[in-house]
Amino acid sequence: AQTVTQSQPEMSVQEAETVTLSCTYDTSESDYYLFWYKQPPSRQMILVIRQEAYKQQNATENRFSVNFQKAAKSFSLKISDSQLGDAAMYFCAYERGADGLTFGKGTHLIIQP
Amino acid sequence: DAMVIQNPRYQVTQFGKPVTLSCSQTLNHNVMYWYQQKSSQAPKLLFHYYDKDFNNEADTPDNFQSRRPNTSFCFLDIRSPGLGDAAMYLCATSRMSAGANVLTFGAGSRLTVL
After folding, report:
1. What is the DSSP string of A25-75?
2. pLDDT, tens digit, for every residue of B26-58?
3. Residue-number span of the structural domain to which A95 is assigned
4. Nearest-CA distance from B3 to chain A in Å?
5. Is there a contact between A103 and A47 (Cβ–Cβ < 8 Å)?
6. Number of structural domains, chain B?
7. CATH number of the domain bearing residue A23
């Protein structure tokens, strides 16, 4: 079974600085997708970024980028120029096809003004 | 706007009193999921519908049931809620096709059991 591990329960960063959230996963599959979702307080979970395992190039979405290391089964999220609106729980997730997502326990990101 | 709507947002029930949570979507997605998220924990998949086909996770208690009367609606029934069932329940939808299965989530229904 696939597992997803986020080892940082909480991270804090100064506004405008850069922060990296860690994620590792375990799978025996070779083709799969990985995601980072953001869950602001009392609001719905939204997709931040996704990565196809067969692509070597790291995905980027504006201030958000990933460092995907397939051999190491590592999938970290880098947030550049952190903003107050980035404060949220961040979940790393592994796609199980139509069976949905397996999530990590999440990292609570605090933005210090 | 196309979206996933969950009702109610907050539900308080008594120990053992049945409760139903609803989810509706205007995205015309063919897959609908129910996740349970307890405080400070990862969302845990309970079950999902792929079109009309129901797929139960192996460790989902029998206390949890689901219905999908049509493409747009899906219900989560908790037959006899226990204190341990207090959680946020998340509905999500997706259009399963080639490529990544991207889930769209509702805002969640928070269940309190007294």
Report:
1. EE-S-SS-EEEEEEE-TTS--EEEEEEETT--SPPEETTEEEEEETTTTEE
2. 999 999 999 999 987 889 999 999 999 999 998
3. 3-112
4. 11
5. no
6. 1
7. 2.60.40.10
CB contact under 8 A, B101 and A33: yes
Closest-CA distance, A16 to chain B, in angstroms, reads 27
Tens of pLDDT along A41-59? 878 899 999 999 988 899 9
Contact status, residue B56 vs residue B65, Cβ threshold 8 Å: no
Flag if B45 and A98 touch (Cβ within 8 Å). no
Q: Which domain holds residue B48?
A: 4-113
Using DSSP's 3-state secondary structure scheme, residue A70 falls into coil
Closest residue on chain B to A105 (Cα): B42
A100 lies within 8 A of chain B by CB: yes
Task: Please tell me the total count of domains within chain A.
Answer: 1
Q: Do B103 and A47 touch (CB under 8 A)?
A: yes
* Residue in A closest to B55 by C-alpha: A99
